[in-house]
What does this fold into?
Amino acid sequence: MQQSASVLGRLDDVRGDVIYDLGQAEEDANGWNKMMNYHTTIGASLTAIPSLATYSSARSTSARPRT
It folds into this structure.
């Protein structure tokens, strides 16, 4: 009887962990979707994304040896 109670307690713990993890995954997915919706609609015009040309020119000037 003691072992049965212990097993059922463990199963209940696992069930609680799974429910929590699924809820956390849903919250993470909602947060990701909100961020992507922001950056593809409103944020795209507000968020400055450096271009590759800007990066390469800044990198080449900093790599020049001093004379």
Q: What stands out?
A: Residues 2-62 form one domain. The radius of gyration is 26 Å. The chain has one domain: 2-62.
